[in-house]
Design goal:
By secondary structure, the chain is mainly alpha-helical. It is built from 14 helices and five strands. The longest helix is centred in the last third of the chain and has 30 residues. The two termini are 36 Å apart. The model has no long low-confidence stretch (mean pLDDT 96). The protein binds tryptophanyl-5'AMP.
Length: 332
Amino acid sequence: MAKEIVVSGIRPTGFLHLGNYFGAIRNYVRMQEDYDCYFFVADWHSLTTHPDTKLLREHVLRVVSENIAAGLDPDKACFYVQSAVPEIAELYLYLNMLAYKGELEKTATFKDKVRLNPENVNAGLLTYPVLQTADIIIHRAKYVPVGKDQEQHLEMSRNFAQRFNHRYGELFPEPGAFNYGEALVKVPSLDGAGKMSKSENQYATIYLSDDDDLIRKKLMKAKTDAGPETPGSEMPDYISNLFQIMALVSEASTLEQFRADFDAANIRYGDMKKQLAEDMVQFIRPIREKALAIRKDEAYLKKIMDKGAERARESAVKTIAMAREMIGLHYL
Ligand code: TYM
């Protein structure tokens, strides 16, 4: 039986962080064993907010290196850069005729980006979820491993795929966000406000490229307080965030011990942060070192990017041929 198809992408707008790893890449590494996987670097998407392309090459090569260092295996999954597959842009064009201004304007990520950057509200930003849909359905994917912040985009992708099928005939499965049946992940930032992010609140985000001392510094600075005064106190958000992050990289027994200390109103946040910093250093160091080595080997990077583009196009060309046929773009 043919394997089920999976697609997911990451924008090269900065270096990868713990949120990208635990929201997305960790599942890429698991899914590449059992599914037909397409993973890519969403360079076109980055142009919607980062029109200055001076750093683009470096960011793309870093993101490729960091994905591989974190366990993505380009021999198992098809791994490519979005702009190497022009068929995605063609499908985006067709889908744009099925997407309405009102629904696009209501998208939470659009509204956020308008708020952050009111002088650059371009049409690409508005139609961002349409391009994302094209990325996914160009391979007729069913599952999309992503973090919690992408949930609304996926809902829109289902709508656009459905509309195409309704108007032109059944071609696309309706894709869904995927996390092995668990809730989608949101890795919180260290300052107790929002989530870890590539370009915002950099001191409250742990990057896969952070060196040991920087990791320690960031964690020791994470917001805490004097601790609970009475046993069984409610946990403030910024402390709960630290526990959530600890759950990702520390042993279960370590987490349980600090949790019990908290419940007994006997916790020393300094000790907890020190322990978390050491566990984080152990987690990040091998990925960082491997990513640096891969980044230096441009011949290897070129080889895998060329191979990925070729495989991705093979699949995309087939879908576009069917889409054209079904739309009726064939005249003689
Ligand atoms: P991007 O580049 O912002 O993030 C890449 C992946 O990392 C996840 N992620 C997080 N997960 C948990 N906690 C966090 N703090 C956190 N921050 C980021 C994201 O959910 C995502 O899975 N629009 C997408 C890129 C994209 C895409 C696609 C994804 C373009 N086309 C097609 C899937 C399918 C984005 O901006 O991701």
